[in-house]
């Protein structure tokens, strides 16, 4: 699975959880500042990403993953 495929899957998850148009979910976007994802939705996104990609994101890492690209890179490096 390429990073582009991962990005599209993450965009679908963000859309399902937070209602953000998948076209708006790009690698450089910040979840909170650019996409308006609140902390509860971020937890739901994290759980969905873990389930979809069979990765574990430790709680202390979630705070570090501020951008969509950060999540994509994390998934790519940990699957």
TrEMBL record:
GO cellular component labels = cytosol; membrane
Identify the Pfam families for this entry.
PP-binding
GO annotation terms (biological process): antibiotic biosynthetic process; lipid A biosynthetic process
Pathways involved: Lipid metabolism; fatty acid biosynthesis
PTM description: 4'-phosphopantetheine is transferred from CoA to a specific serine of apo-ACP by AcpS. This modification is essential for activity because fatty acids are bound in thioester linkage to the sulfhydryl of the prosthetic group.
User: Keywords in UniProt for this one?
Assistant: Cytoplasm, Fatty acid biosynthesis, Fatty acid metabolism, Lipid biosynthesis, Lipid metabolism, Phosphopantetheine, Phosphoprotein
> Where in the cell does this protein reside?
Cytoplasm
Q: Which PANTHER family match?
A: ACYL CARRIER PROTEIN, CARRIER DOMAIN-CONTAINING PROTEIN
Family of this protein:
Belongs to the acyl carrier protein (ACP) family.
This chain's protein is named Acyl carrier protein
Q: What organism is listed for this UniProt entry?
A: Streptomyces uncialis
């Amino acid at each position: 699975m390429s990073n582009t495929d991962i990005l599209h899957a993450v965009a679908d998850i963000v859309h399902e959880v937070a209602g953000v148009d998948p076209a708006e979910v790009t690698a450089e976007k910040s979840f909170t500042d650019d996409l308006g994802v609140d902390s509860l939705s971020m937890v739901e996104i994290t759980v969905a990403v873990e389930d979809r990609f069979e990765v574990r994101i430790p709680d202390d890492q979630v705070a570090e993953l501020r951008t969509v690209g950060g999540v994509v890179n994390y998934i790519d490096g940990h699957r």
